[in-house]
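[agent] plan:
  1. take the single chain provided in the ticket
  2. run structure prediction with default settings
  3. attach structure tokens to the ticket
  4. add a short note for the reviewer (M.T.)
[agent] executing step 1
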Amino acid sequence: MIRHILKETPTKEEFLDWQQRAGVDKKKFVNTNGKKYKELGLKDTIDAMSDGALFSMLASDGMLVKRPLLIGDDFVVAGFKQQEWEALDL
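[agent] step 2 finished; step 3 output follows
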């Protein structure tokens, strides 16, 4: 399924589910190169935020989400990293 994250931003519950299934750090979902990330000063506060608080913030603004997201039953690949995508052998 293809989903336009800026128009249909994932919910907090989806982020929590994906994080749990894939066992990845919450920061994997954050667009750390984005303007919004810098404007909000998340670099200095993200580590102190709970997963739920961060995912609520991401769910409120798709520009904070690292894109594209490739989600599977036991993996999450955030951003386009050709080697990671090829290694999945989909």
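[agent] step 4 note for reviewer: The longest strand covers residues 69-71.
[agent] ticket updated
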